[in-house]
Amino acid sequence: MSISSIALGAAACGSGEDSGGTSAKAKPTNCTNKIVRPDATRVSVWAWYPNMAKVVDNFNNAHTDVQVCWTNAGQGAPQYAKFQTAIAAKKGAPDVIMLESDQLVGFEIQDALVDISAYGANEVKANFSDGAWKDVSQGEAVYAIPVDGGPMAMIYRTDVFEKYGIKTPPKTWAEYAEAAAKMKAAGGPLFGDLGSNVPAVVTALMIQKGAKPFTYDLANKQNITIKLDDQATKDVLNYWADLVSKKLVGTADQFTTDYIAGVVNGKYATYVSAAWAPGYLTGAGVGSGASKGKFAVAPLPQWDVNAPVSVNWGGSAFAVTSQAADKKAATKVAMGLYADDASLTDGWKTQTIFPLNQSVQKSDAFISNKVEFFNGQTANKDIYIPAGDAYQGATYSPFTVYYYAQLQAQIVKINSGKTTGDQAATELQDIMVKYAKSQGFIVQ
């Protein structure tokens, strides 16, 4: 298979239906939202943010020359599958698409996304941190406009910590393991969880330790460096394997009904997650009833407190597809959608997003916000903004979906005691090198 036709691992789930792409002759008409100005240029958008209807209305009411025609084509993988089908068919893609940052390169390499620096994208570069901008760029090329991010931290149960004598949140991963052992010895609950369905978290923790799983530059499409059997990766996998073997942390898949019930009932003392987690947990019913006021957040534990590293989980951006009929208008939408004050304010106040726009992050309202989920803690000021500012960006591979699936399989084996961290890292390296070569890459 040639590099230009590399699949993202989910294409078979898509349909061949034309569900949003535009042409020079026709405007998209399958809009979920109301078009305020029918004569304006119309730009089709796929996005799944929960408050997207309000965001689209805000944009359309503020613009006379361009209107957004929005469709929710699925969240995450289902949407990516439909987009992959549209790429193969060379029709059916939207003009603008919401993508998670770690998925961008896989579509960039297929020439499915447009370098929007030629259409003014750099005009808003100053609105974002260097790390956030790096995640959507390749050299001088810009392939998306950031919206939200996921600087990572450690959420914890204050009542559980107090009951079992954990006086301060662990600052290092060594202290985390010590606190977990202390809690178990006292008859307490699991200290955390290593779900196999969060390979992005494990990857982030590998990067925090100093790993560089992939080195890739779109300017040299054929070459890629893969380092998944390095010492940093082995250290992280062995660390969590040890916690699992001692039954200090659980192995439940996250985002499930059972897992959420455990979070509500105090089955887990900590939750290593991202800045968007409070919104997700609140929406799932956590933080109400008996669990109300029981949560706080602390910085992500470090391997070396003298050399802290901030990492990211999740975060999405708006990209312009190569099938867009009017790429300048589409870029205007990508730059302006979810960028106005009303949309951003609604996003962060409802905890729908953790906004990357610096106009929000530097506002007193956001900085000083006393987060209800954290019982009034000023989590933005104390935890999430510093973590986001320190984030340096990451380099993702052109085959994130396949890589995550293989890492997930290794985590399953670690959790069942069938492999060690060292063995998992070596096998993962071999699998990914073989796969990359089968896709036409030269592995350095």
From TrEMBL:
SUPFAM superfamilies in alphabetical order: Periplasmic binding protein-like II
KW Transport (keyword) present: yes
Pfam family, one: SBP_bac_1
Domain of life: Bacteria
InterPro entries: Bact_solute-bd_prot1, SBP
Keywords: Sugar transport, Transport
Statement: the UniProt record of this protein carries the keyword Transport: yes
The name this protein goes by in its record: Multiple sugar transport system substrate-binding protein
Native species: Nonomuraea rubra
